[in-house]
Amino acid sequence: MRLFVRAYRSLRIGSTAVAIYLLYKVPAWTRRLLQRPPLGDDELTPTHQRAARLLLWTALGLRGVLIKFCQVVATRADVFPPAIIDILKQCHDAVPAHPFEEIREQVERELGKPLDAVFREFDREPIAAASLAQVHRAVLLHGEPVAVKVQYPDIERIVHTDLANMRRVCAVYEFFDPQPIALLPLVQELTRHLELELDFEREADCADRIRDLFARDGTVVVPQIHREWSTRRVLTMELVGGIKITERARIEAAGLRPTDVMQELMRIYTRMILAAGFFQADPHPGNLFVQENGHIVLLDFGLSKELPEGFGLGLFELMFSMMTLNQSAMVRAFEELGFETKNGDPSTFLLITERMMKRSDTGRFEGEFTEEMTDELFDAIRENPVVSVPSDFVLVGRAFSLLSGIGASLGARANVLEAMGASTGATS
Question: How many domains does the chain have?
């Protein structure tokens, strides 16, 4: 049975890769034979959309790593065009749940006890489902409500099978037709992410670390972990409620101002990224809630990231140089953050920054990240000859992009510089 499943997954991944390849190559070959110029970016938009829908359809059918790969692609606005990004973003919300009996067996196997020996109640329907795990509401024997995150059975074997298939596909692509987009590094990036997210014991450690970071703050809520009922594949934690961070009407009905909520959210992420150098790197709306007292709830620490020493300072220098229009400082900040260009010409960095500034209201950075500015930054990076964009910057940039998207949903903007000042005051 396992051999059949492995062969089926390999066939689906391979056939999808061939179909996407032909979507792009057949029109290119035809135009070359007819001596017509290649299609421009705008003309390729329908092809990008068809390719993304095909990849999404295959990912939702196979689940597992393919869904995670789509999510990684959806974060790389510096590499892939908006038409692909917009469609693959659905992977955060469209993941089907696994049957309850599979989840029950996994929990009982991991905890070494029948379900009713640990939980008084355990809801059959999940409150959330993702690519590697799903979350169920439950009640411990002594009456405490909890959330139980359960890794899908056999997901590690499926991960290894799918990663091997994807590495083969990428190697074939780049051998026969070297791509302007290096695909193998994306698979390597995905592998690193999965190694982090498949270890729930590490996730519990990360949750504890973020909670400790805000221990004296009082306005940041991180669920407590029940270590005695947690393993590498099952995570039992305090059940924490709140209003979804993008539900503006409910936030206002609770007597909260969306602008204040957004500014508080930016303060929290500024504190983690610029000050602590360790942050929850997946701030999509499903992981963020606000309570009626204004406290922010952070969930899901599987993708938590330790930033290199000096990264926060380099990012601050980049923002400050954009405020002061100091070109030499901009170039130095990009280089310190780990950016490289194909020909070593630093003027590329200035072109990137100039395009980003054009989307701001004043022509310079004044502490506010808007969705338009972050999108323009990644568009500029994709279109210019930048060879190396550090993965840490991509994760941080994605975090700020997601935060700016939340701000758009709330009709509010947040100022990074004000958030830095508030964070310093809150932790002094």
Answer: 2
The partner residues of 297 in beta bridges, in order of sequence, read 221, 289
The answer to whether position 305 is within a domain reads yes
131 part of a folded domain: no
Residue 126 token pair:
């999940």
Q: Is residue 68 part of a domain?
A: yes
50 vs 22, 47, 153, 327, CA distance in Å? 12, 5, 32, 41
**Which residues touch 34 (CB under 8 Å, ≥6 apart)?**
none
* Domain end among 132, 165, 198: 165
Helix 45-62 vs helix 2-33: crossing angle, to nearest 10: 170
**Type of residue numbered 378:** F
**DSSP bridge partners of 221:** 297
Does residue 61 fall inside a structural domain? yes
- pTM of the predicted model, to two decimals? 0.78
pLDDT tens for each residue of 79-137? 678 888 888 877 765 567 889 999 999 999 999 999 999 999 999 999 988 878 999 99
Catalytic annotation present for 282: yes
Largest distance between two CA atoms of the chain: 75
**Rounded distance between C-alpha atoms, residue 63 and residue 68, angstroms:** 8
Domain boundary among the residues 102, 136, 165 is at: 165
pLDDT in tens, 336-362: 888 887 777 777 788 777 777 766 666
Find out whether 265 and 406 touch, Cβ atoms under 8 Å.
Answer: yes
Boundaries of domain holding 387: 242-428
d(CA 419, CA 416): 5
Active-site position among 78, 282, 300, 379: 282
User: Residue 422 is encoded by which pair of tokens?
Assistant: 């508030």
